[in-house]
Design a protein that fits this description.
184 residues, alpha+beta, four-stranded antiparallel sheet, three-stranded antiparallel sheet, 3 helices, elongated
């Protein structure tokens, strides 16, 4: 090919095969300024649940057998009922492990998505410029972390420890300040 031959310029539309539809250009969304997934703390794993129930059942069976030998046979049944109740309570507690809240902040909106243990989802959106992050109550006892805007109020992180709520409130306030800063 000679250096003097001019090649026609091709645009992106020339690279498309005839009959092919090109999707319209959609700008990629900006990365979030803040993104947190909040989950309740669960220290008991499914294996741990079975270990605890197994140990409790063995101890109850041993104690119940002693009462059975002494002639107090109804006590044996109550020990069995205790094991069933402990299993039910621990299982109910571990079912809550599937729930979570996601707090995502962009310059345009703050979105809170709450998913229950059954998978049911609830969603709230707030405009960041008017949003207030409020921490109500003592710093060491039961406190509440709420989002407030235009007469709407939403408590988030109900299952978090007081220290975790304070940390989340500070981080969220910092991210909101950044979201409110104009970008030129």
């Amino acid at each position: 090919m000679s250096k003097n031959v001019a090649m026609p310029e091709t645009g992106p539309e020339d690279d498309v095969a005839p009959g092919r539809v090109v999707p319209p250009f959609e700008p990629t969304p900006a990365p979030p300024l803040f993104d947190a997934i909040l989950r309740p703390h669960r220290s008991l794993t499914p294996v741990g649940l079975w270990v605890i129930v197994g140990i409790f059942a063995a101890a109850s069976f041993a104690m119940g057998t002693l009462f059975l030998i002494k002639g107090a046979w109804p006590v044996f049944g109550f020990y069995g009922l205790d094991v069933a109740l402990v299993y039910w309570a621990l299982k109910a507690s571990s079912r809550q492990a599937g729930m979570f809240e996601r707090v995502e902040l962009t310059r345009e909106r703050l979105t809170v998505r709450r998913v229950s243990r059954t998978g049911k989802e609830a969603r709230w959106e707030f405009q960041p410029y008017w949003l207030k992050v409020e921490l109500e109550g003592p710093t060491s006892g039961r406190n509440r972390l709420t989002l407030r805007s235009h007469g709407r109020r939403l408590e988030i992180g109900v299952f978090l420890a007081p220290e975790e709520k304070i940390t989340l409130a500070l981080a969220l306030r910092g991210a909101l300040a950044k979201a409110r800063t104009p970008v030129f």
